Amino acid sequence: MFKKKKISLTKDRMWKEKNKLYLSEIQNLMDKLDNITDERLKQKILGQMLRCDNILTELAEEKFDEYYKLGYKKGKQE
User: Fold this and answer.
1) Which DSSP category does 18 fall into?
2) Three-class SS string for 23-39?
3) pLDDT tens profile 14-68
4) Which residue from 61, 39, 37, 57 is spatially nearest to 49, judged by alpha carbons?
5) What's the pLDDT at 69?
6) Cβ–Cβ under 8 Å, residues 22 and 16
7) Measured between alpha carbons, how far is 36 from 42 in angstroms, rounded to an integer?
8) What CA–CA distances, in Å, run from 3 to 10, 11, 14?
9) How far apart are CA 36 and CA 40, in angstroms?
10) Residue 29 to residue 49: CA distance in whole angstroms
11) What is the pLDDT of residue 1?
């Protein structure tokens, strides 16, 4: 009944990059970073933000995958 079609979320992060609120908040952060005169501090903050963003992205993609598998399993049972 259901065809198993899995989209690799790790290769396609457009779900995040098309989100207007996400993009607005990232732009807001970048604007604030531009006002920091200490380049070393600016780079540390940017690097830390990117690491946090990557961790949250991976967690979200794991949840997407988990819900996909759960829905697929439930769909197969019906």
Assistant:
1) T
2) HHHHHHHHHHHHCCCCH
3) 888 889 999 999 999 999 999 999 999 999 999 999 999 999 999 988 998 888 8
4) 57
5) 86
6) yes
7) 6
8) 21, 21, 23
9) 10
10) 9
11) 44
